[in-house]
Amino acid sequence: MTAATSVTGAPTSGTGVRRVSFWRVLHSEWIKFRTLRSTLWTVVITAVVMVGFALMMAAIMRSAVDNPEMQREMAQDPGMQAMGGLAGTTAITLGYSFGQLAVAVLAALVVTSEYSTGMIRSTFAAVPHRLPVLWAKLVVIVATTVVVISLALGVAYLVTMPLLDAAGLSIDLSDPDQVRPLAGCVLYLATVAAFALAVGALMRHTAGAIFTLVALFFVLPIIFSIIVAASDAAWTDWVNKLLPSVAGERIISGGPTPDTLLEPWVGYGVLAGYTLVLLVAAAVTLRRRDA
Amino acid sequence: MIEARGLSKRYGDKLAVDDVTFTVQPGLVTGFLGPNGAGKSTTMRLIMGLDGPTAGTVTVNGRPYAQHRTPLAEVGALLEAKSAHPGRTARQHLQVLAATHGIADSRVDEVIELTGLTAVARKRVGGFSLGMGQRLGIAVALLGDPRTLILDEPVNGLDPEGVLWVRNLTRYLAEQGRTVFLSSHLMSEVALTADHVIVIGKGRILADTSVRDLLDGASRRHVRVRTPQGDELSEGLRREGADVTVFDDGRLDVAGLDAPRIGEVAARSAVVLHELTPVSSTLEDAYMALTADAVEFHAEDITAVPATAPTTVAASSPEGAER
Hints:
The complex is a heterodimer of chains A (about 290) and B (about 325). Chain A is mainly α and about 290 residues long. Chain A has 13 helices and no strands. In chain B, helix 3 crosses helix 4 and helix 4 (about 105-115) crosses helix 5 (about 130-140). In chain B, strand 1 (about 1-10) and strand 2 form a beta hairpin. With about 325 residues, chain B is an alpha/beta fold.
């Protein structure tokens, strides 16, 4: 190669280089997000699965109309009760628990994959202030979650409409009690994304972050649902209802609040509080720690 | 211009960089030389603000790196070859970093062409060889047209053509008035590329000197002579002003006279010569001597080569370095 014949003009020219701003960092993070195939696939599959679950549940509800025993069983099921009982919104939002796994893993990876691949060095060399990177990642993952989950719920609403109408469970979008679980589903998953991003930024290792998130959002709720059922101790009730997912999920459920759980907005507030604390901790450590 | 003052970095019990002070001047290629684990990479990470110093300060172009508003226009850094997500293409990787400074795609394509990556620009980085990864790292370093370049082992993994290209590129960048700071654990490489050299060992600066001075210091030559008439010859040589060391096995090391003159002296006094070998202590030898106590990982010396072997590697001889 005949080397540096066309290098770069005068040393101080700095042609076409503008100062780093939040919007530029956000643009950079957006390119990062959309240029990874695994990200795109995760997003698409999440949306498809959520719509699929909604269809499946709506079909079951439809067939339950002609089967009173089945209807009674569904109404008495504790899981169904926690979701808000036999309602159209329950069918549409059913996929959230799958969605939260996908969203949490994706959000954690947004940070941890930079550490595992060494990309973080390039990122921090370009943005040595570091904090704009964290906030830009937050905006990208939260905005993507909001858009994708809203789209998935919208499609689910449309495709399940004939089935739910036939089951007499039509969703009334003018009823605040029915809109809250739908909007709550978007809000919950967006908050889970922020929570997971913060955990990823704090732990920096993919396996550790995903283990923590799965333990918090999937394993502990199962264990505590058993403990709460078996034990009379008040503290187990409290630990259970304050678990991030158990508290946060309240915003998605319709119907009356059981004694063992928090009111929907209180529950969501608990999850939002955890998320805020984790984000602040992530920001502080990001500035201080060696990359 | 890079200025480090009393810079230290401790990782746990290990003091990786120990109170180093140095200045890297613009318009020169400055080599940063030291054995593996000497603290080169750590120092470079400290300059880039990737790691925070335990003590001391380091500034680039007058400010700590993080305080610059256009960091990529101040410093272009190649720190480790694989500092990219393997799932992105080379071009996407550059676009990601360009976006932070509003750098246009045209500039991205320019550095791709400049670093010879055009053919693989749309291939994913995960499949890159070490050499291609290195070129991508250099492309990233050049992206913001920076005033200062920090290159950690830039020729690692490059083929000979690539090595030559990096040499020419760094020289060219320095001639434009930029500050070029490149690390290497190979003395010969630094001698070929750099004007100035900072030698580090066990976290401390061992030498901070021009390459010319280091070469002069290294090029103490002598001639090895074997003869059955050692006493006679050494007497004759000393009369000519030579400095002769006589060894037990009959070998003479003669300094101050070159081989032809020694031959003439021997012929005049009818001394039989069995060997007449010019020996120059190489740059590598000077470097080894300098860092002998500061090497982190000693290997067993299985070859038992004497410290002053004849110069057989042209590239590491002083003459080679002048080219």
